[in-house]
Specification:
The N terminus is likely disordered. The radius of gyration is 40 Å and the shape is rod-shaped. 18% of the residues are buried. The protein contains ten helices and ten strands. By secondary structure, the chain is α/β, with parallel strands linked by helices. It folds into three domains: 141 residues, Response regulator (Rossmann fold, 3-Layer(aba) Sandwich), CATH 3.40.50; 100 residues, Beta-Lactamase (2-Layer Sandwich); 92 residues. Keywords: DNA-binding, Phosphoprotein, Transcription, Transcription regulation, Two-component regulatory system. One of its GO terms (cellular component) is protein-DNA complex. It holds the Pfam family PAS_8.
């Protein structure tokens, strides 16, 4: 049994064993601007059958408290245990105020006395009760979705009070990242997570046309064990339990930033190697080319012997440069392999 979504047509289960009272309700509702489709049940047994019928759905129940098989508070208690997603409005001849208050406390939407009933009061009670129930249900559904999205998110998220900075909630990913228990985090202020010199974001003016999380920047946070991590903060203003709050997404980017730093250092090393190849290698090579030409052209034995010594020195200098380049290149390759492994871990 599911409630209708329509706001133009109302399907009402009228629980009334008195034919005259049912006819009166029917006349009252037929005179209203909205359309009412009534289903009549004379006993609690028929009520259960109607509610369990998959072919029927209702927006509200009008309940008389004097049924042949169940009456009074016992009937209200039984109806309450069904946890219905639609409002139950009591129509009764009992004028006992304490009885009415107790009924309302048990989840009854409204309590109407038959002797004071008129078309307008009955119509307003049904429409107000139905719309109020729908609003409450929609709010409960929204809160449930928020809770699921928040707590099951793989990214660390926290909510804190904008006025007191008290942490109001934290999801499982945040507990794992900061190594605190849920109760420990809820006893803290958001500033306690920030390392010295960093401050938490406060209430922000949302960018025009944007309602999603907005970039705050990279901050340094301190975990329970004292470990410092760099977190990329996204935040947004929200209302949490009727208080102005802020939700932040704190993604740990420590290893990624270290990787980027290592890449930058590697690029500097490669630039050095490039400079060595274009300058340090070129000098001895140029000398070798010039000396070999002179050596070929010379016919003086002593002169050739002297040039041979220069050729040997240039060759040795070139060999040292090549060795240095080879060692530097090997370091870069090894560093690249290590950083690739690090990046792979951060993305898995």
């Amino acid at each position: 049994m599911t409630p209708l979504i329509s706001t133009k047509k109302y399907r009402i289960l009228v629980v009334e064993d008195n034919p005259g009272d049912f006819a009166l309700v029917e006349d009252f509702l037929c005179s209203q601007p909205d359309e009412f489709e009534l289903t009549h049940a004379k006993t609690y047994k028929q009520v259960r059958a109607a509610l369990n019928d998959p072919q029927k759905c209702f927006d509200a129940i009008l309940l008389d408290l004097s049924l042949p098989d169940m009456q009074g508070m016992a009937l209200i208690s039984e109806i309450s245990t069904l946890d219905l997603p639609i409002p139950v409005i009591v129509l009764t001849g009992y004028s006992d105020m304490s009885f009415g208050v107790r009924s309302l406390s048990m989840g009854i939407s409204d309590y109407l006395l038959k002797d004071e009933l008129d078309p307008t009061n009955l119509y307003k009670s049904i429409v107000y009760s139905v719309e109020r129930k729908r609003s409450v249900s929609a709010l409960a559904t929204s809160q449930k979705k928020y809770s699921e999205l928040f707590h099951l998110s793989p990214l660390p998220m926290l909510v804190f009070d904008q006025e007191t900075s008290q942490i109001l909630d934290a999801n499982k990913a945040a507990l794992k990242q900061y190594r605190y228990t849920h109760s420990e985090l809820l006893a803290m202020h958001i500033e306690e997570l920030y390392a010295t010199g960093d401050t938490a974001p406060r209430e922000m003016e949302p960018e025009k046309g944007k309602t999603s999380l907005q970039q705050q920047g990279i901050y340094q946070h301190r975990c329970k064990d004292g470990k410092l991590i760099k977190v990329d903060i996204l935040s947004n203003n929200i209302e949490f339990k009727s208080r102005p709050a802020m939700v932040i997404l704190a993604n740990d980017v420590t290893e990624r930033l270290d990787y980027i730093k290592a890449i930058e250092a590697q690029n500097d090393k490669l630039a050095e190697i490039s400079w060595m190849q274009s300058h340090l290698v070129r000098a001895p090579v140029a000398r070798l080319l010039a000396l070999t030409q002179l050596f070929s052209a010379s016919k003086d034995a002593s002169e050739k012997e002297e040039m041979a010594e220069y050729i040997l020195k240039s060759a040795q200098e070139l060999d040292e440069v090549i060795k240095h380049i080879t060692i530097s290149t090997g370091i870069v390759i090894n560093d690249n392999l290590k950083k690739s492994e690090m990046l792979s871990k951060t993305t898995n």
